[in-house]
Amino acid sequence: xxxxxxxxxxxxxxxxxxxxxxxxxxxxxxxxxxxxxxxxxxxxxxxxxxxxxxxxxxxxxxxxxxxxxxxxxxxxxxxxxxxxxxxxxxxxxxxxxxxxxxxxxxxxxxxxxxxxxxxxxxxxxxxxxxxxxxxxxxxxxxxxxxxxxxxxxxxxxxxxxxxxxxxxxxxxxxxxxxxxxxxxxxxxxxxxxxxxxxxxxxxxxxxxxx
Length: 210
Known about the structure:
Blueprint: H1 7-17, H2 35-47, H3 49-67, H4 74-85, E1 97-99, E2 104-106, H5 112-121, H6 130-144, H7 151-164, H8 185-200
Antiparallel strand pairs: 1-2
């Protein structure tokens, strides 16, 4: 059997090529309707009420961490993931991970955890537009695939956290739930553009008195 190429190595190359700086500007409005909560209360709850409740608890932690400006790292994600999965411990994976029916394989090397930490730190890089940073962090979690289970949920919570740190709340997150591939720099940039589209769907905040 032929071993699939290391999609994580591919992603580390692609993330350097993607046009993150072309991401749209976002509007800060922390009082906007919370699309993540609506998504949990709607389609997730209808499918699995327990899953929805766990996600909401993890979401609350992610927002609290954003409010205290906690730096993004594996320990932070693991805290959310314990709530998502309802388990006491969620270690970093100990072997290669696979997704998309085996099409993608995410290798594990002695540098994987350090590379993941370095990538997550870039979520605070002010030289990259917020939508680009949020999209990149989402894809970092998806393609590093740090957990044995629940990585798509971890990626979405990461995106929400990165936005919330700067006062941005998306009114809708459902359209973000589409398959992404590690070898697609255009798709990576499209995710940042989609964040901008979702941000613009809500009405602009009312002007205050000057």
